[in-house]
């Protein structure tokens, strides 16, 4: 398939002005394909040649200004329009299109619970071409008229309000000017809950089989939506620019959500069938806030080319967390950001694939390269940079610049230069110089304190590995003499890095000096020797959760950099998590401890003792929560106890009883989690997996069964799972992921050793055959990450030397192989 280059897009944008699309889709023609008819009204500013894109199963007819064009002239996904005369034109395209089962284009899903079928679009980047013909690039905005023929009993949702016509077809209100990738459709027998707010219709939608779970959370979701909507209208001068606000929870969705104007689509795991923690509810609320921010930054004002994708994502990421903190009951969201999202950014920024938050346009020459930048840098690092910018500028000037940006570019497109110019118009500070240092550079600065005592005062100098300017807070903490293990804040002061001279403060040196207290900047933080010794004794005694998150991140970074023994990290977790009050920290530390420290950084021989330590830690947390006062902490402890179980007996008893003693009851999520661990340990059978699937025949149940079957320590089970992933194309994106998640187990290293080399041989043709979504899933979930040895690294490097890798697969393998190198370095440190 031809990818669109930046040069081609610029040439086409100079030539064409696209006014309107008329799109008719017929979803009643069968289970494999649907019919697509498109009329594009556009003007050529001068005589010239161009092309449009479409990816049909069958291209039936094409006409330009009433004159037929040969469908056979389609080359891959392009059909040339040659000899265009200056002036208005009408392009008509009729095609048969293929439904997707990988979350790209028009995805079709049949619910195993009740047999109902649902479809929805995900048209990001180039996938609009899987649904209708288009001049497919973000700066050729147009109005869209959408008409859909759907089976009886279905409801059709779109960017605008939809109505069913007398002939049975559904027609959506004409949209304002949109980029092609924002066109949205969700059709099926949805369960819908509607309300009104600020004079606009708001809706929540999900599969009918999930109706009771959405009903249970509808008021919470609407409340979050209203609170964020109102807060954005306090921040932004431009009103919400669309005629309705629907949120559809759709099956087998690849991302967390998609900011389609007026119709945001979410992965329907956010409709909770089982118990969740309040931190997980906070995450869902953040996604609601994030996607709503996109209605202004992304939808109303859209990037001109994909090098500025960070403008969309970093802004929405920052604004989502900040608005949630200001407007909702979730007031500690930046702790979760610091412990989870920033770690994602730090990791990405230290790999060979790192890139600036705002890469040079030449670094994003085409759509294939642009797809690779949806990572922790564009989201978490970019949001961290904006948070630092707000700290430096002040929120008043920041919002003034943002509102100027919206006013100047509404319903149009903008670039990084436009964004920076608009911010600069609101302040005397040199925003352009800030942008060069923060947005055009790669890597993570490291800040190390140098503390000295001088009689009745102490001094602080900050050694900096890197050259970005930072405005940080420094926390000075003393040991509380009345409460052993507790720390008290003496003072918190701000300083600039780099500084012209050390900072001098009155009094004896503090027990703990913490750089970046409050976590307002983006940098790895080290502790001086005395402060680290204090942290080891009293980390859980730090009074502020964000301060504790900064220290835990420092420990995490030191492990990854080979400066702290992995076992020492586990001992710190064992000592302090039983007293930790912030659930985001508990979840983040346990996830790193189990997934990275035990899963990769420790030698195989040290794994049993490490799992035993984590088992004891989670058992302590379970005991601590017996009074029922902290169900989220108890649920987290139970989950990780299951994941760390080295012997099956306790969790087998829980499964048989249907409950953990003292609670919680084993809901579907916990039952599948226990059964998965039993499969890994060889303590369950295919018959028991089938029985559990009969008990829970949902889509989630099918995924749980696939995961369990792939995890069985049996050669035949491994062969069947491998064949399903790599030799056939029947698995949907979710079933592929579930199978891959179950396949590799450290406990089964000898059994799966032969598949390590096979992965590289089989992943390359799989990616070429099934496309970017499955390529990304294969690189992320089917990669043999447990195999931390020089041979595995050599195999990965050999594969990366090939010139036939799909870009999505190459990027994932580059990152995974680098993570293996890091794990080896940690082991050798």
From TrEMBL:
Ranges annotated as spanning the membrane: none
Requisite cofactors: Zn(2+)
Documented EC number(s): 3.4.11.2
Domain Aminopeptidase N-like N-terminal: 21-181
Domain Peptidase M1 membrane alanine aminopeptidase: 222-438
Reactions listed under catalytic activity: Release of an N-terminal amino acid, Xaa-|-Yaa- from a peptide, amide or arylamide. Xaa is preferably Ala, but may be most amino acids including Pro (slow action). When a terminal hydrophobic residue is followed by a prolyl residue, the two may be released as an intact Xaa-Pro dipeptide
Gene3D superfamilies recorded: Neutral Protease Domain 2, tricorn interacting facor f3 domain
UniProt xrefs under InterPro entries: Aminopeptidase_N-like_N (IPR045357), Aminopeptidase_N-like_N_sf (IPR042097), ERAP1-like_C_dom (IPR024571), Pept_M1_aminopeptidase (IPR012778), Peptidase_M1 (IPR001930), Peptidase_M1_aminopeptidases (IPR050344), Peptidase_M1_dom (IPR014782), Peptidase_M4/M1_CTD_sf (IPR027268)
Domain ERAP1-like C-terminal positions: 512-822
GO molecular function: alanyl aminopeptidase activity
NCBIfam families noted in UniProt: pepN_strep_liv
Protein's UniProt name: Aminopeptidase N
Native source species: Streptomyces melanogenes
């Amino acid at each position: 398939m031809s990818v669109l280059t930046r040069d081609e897009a610029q040439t086409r944008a100079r030539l064409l002005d696209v006014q309107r699309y008329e799109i008719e889709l017929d979803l009643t023609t069968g289970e494999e394909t649907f019919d697509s008819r498109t009329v594009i009204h556009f003007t050529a500013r001068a005589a010239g040649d161009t092309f449009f894109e479409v990816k049909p199963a069958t291209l039936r007819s094409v006409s330009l200004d009433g004159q037929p064009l040969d469908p056979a002239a389609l080359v891959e996904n392009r059909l040339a329009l040659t000899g265009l005369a200056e002036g208005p034109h009408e392009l008509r395209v009729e095609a048969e299109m293929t439904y997707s089962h990988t979350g790209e284009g028009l995805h079709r899903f049949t619910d195993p619970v009740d047999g109902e079928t649902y479809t929805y679009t995900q048209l990001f980047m180039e996938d609009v071409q899987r649904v209708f013909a288009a001049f497919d690039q973000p700066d050729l905005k147009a109005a869209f008229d959408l008409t859909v023929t759907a089976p009886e009993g279905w409801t059709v949702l779109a960017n605008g309000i939809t109505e069913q016509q007398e002939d049975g077809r559904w027609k959506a209100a004409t949209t304002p000017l949109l980029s092609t990738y924002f066109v949205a459709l969700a059709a099926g027998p949805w369960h819908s809950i509607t309300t009104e707010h600020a004079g606009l219709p708001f809706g929540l939608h999900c599969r009918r089989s999930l109706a009771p779970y959405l009903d249970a959370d509808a008021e919470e979701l609407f409340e979050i939506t209203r609170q964020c909507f109102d807060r954005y209208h306090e921040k932004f001068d431009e009103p919400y620019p669309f005629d309705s606000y629907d949120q559809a929870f759709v099956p087998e969705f690849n991302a967390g959500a998609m900011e389609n104007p007026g119709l945001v689509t979410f992965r329907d795991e956010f409709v909770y069938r089982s118990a969740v923690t309040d931190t997980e509810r906070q995450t869902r609320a953040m996604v609601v806030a994030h996607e709503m921010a996109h209605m202004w930054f992304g939808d109303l004002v859209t990037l001109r080319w994909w090098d500025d994708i960070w403008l969309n994502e970093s802004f929405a990421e920052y604004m989502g967390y900040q608005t949630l903190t200001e407007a909702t009951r979730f007031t500690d969201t930046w702790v979760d950001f610091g412990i989870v999202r920033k770690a994602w950014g730090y990791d990405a920024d230290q790999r060979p694939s790192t890139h600036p938050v705002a890469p040079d346009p030449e670094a994003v020459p085409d759509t294939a390269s642009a797809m690779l930048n949806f990572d922790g840098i564009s989201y978490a690092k970019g949001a961290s940079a904006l948070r630092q910018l707000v700290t430096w500028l002040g929120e008043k000037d920041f919002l003034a610049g943002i509102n100027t940006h919206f006013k100047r570019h509404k319903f149009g497109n903008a670039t990084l230069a436009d964004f920076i110019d608009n911010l600069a118009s609101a302040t005397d500070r040199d925003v352009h110089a800030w942008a060069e240092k923060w947005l055009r550079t790669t890597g993570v600065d490291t800040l190390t304190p140098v503390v000295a005592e001088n009689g009745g005062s102490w001094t602080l100098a900050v050694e900096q590995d890197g050259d970005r300017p930072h405005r940080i807070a420094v926390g000075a903490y003393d040991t509380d003499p009345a409460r052993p293990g507790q720390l008290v804040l003496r003072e918190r002061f701000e300083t600039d890095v780099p500084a012209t001279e050390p900072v001098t403060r009155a009094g004896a040196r503090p027990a703990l000096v913490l750089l970046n207290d409050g976590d307002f900047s983006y940098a790895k933080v080290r502790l001086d020797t005395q402060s680290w010794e204090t942290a080891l004794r009293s980390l859980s005694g730090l009074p502020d959760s964000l301060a504790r998150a900064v220290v835990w991140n420092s420990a995490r970074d030191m492990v990854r950099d080979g400066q702290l023994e992995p076992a020492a990290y586990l001992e710190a977790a064992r000592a302090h998590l039983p007293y930790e009050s912030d659930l985001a920290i508990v979840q983040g530390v346990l996830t790193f401890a189990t997934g990275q420290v035990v899963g990769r950084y420790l030698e195989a021989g040290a794994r049993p003792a490490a799992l035993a330590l984590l088992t004891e830690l989670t058992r302590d947390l379970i005991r601590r929560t017996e009074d029922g006062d902290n169900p989220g902490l108890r649920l987290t402890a139970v989950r990780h106890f299951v994941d760390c179980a080295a012997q099956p007996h306790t969790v087998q008893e829980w499964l048989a009883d249907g409950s953990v003693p003292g609670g919680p009851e084993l809901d579907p999520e916990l039952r599948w989690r226990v059964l998965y661990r039993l499969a890994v340990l060889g303590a369950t059978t295919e018959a028991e997996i089938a029985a559990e699937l009969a008990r829970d025949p949902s889509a989630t149940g099918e995924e749980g069964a696939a995961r369990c079957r792939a995890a069985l320590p049996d050669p035949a089970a491994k062969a069947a799972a491998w064949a399903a992933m790599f030799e056939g194309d029947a698995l949907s994106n979710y079933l592929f992921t579930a199978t891959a998640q179950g396949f590799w187990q450290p406990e089964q290293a000898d059994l799966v050793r032969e598949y390590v080399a096979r992965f590289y041989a089989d992943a390359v043709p799989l990616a070429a055959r099934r496309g970017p979504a499955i390529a990304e899933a294969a690189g992320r979930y089917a990669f043999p990450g447990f195999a931390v040895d020089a041979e595995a690294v050599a195999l990965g490097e050999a594969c990366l030397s090939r010139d036939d890798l799909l870009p999505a697969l190459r990027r994932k393998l580059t990152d995974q192989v680098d993570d293996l190198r890091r794990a080896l370095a940690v082991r050798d440190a």
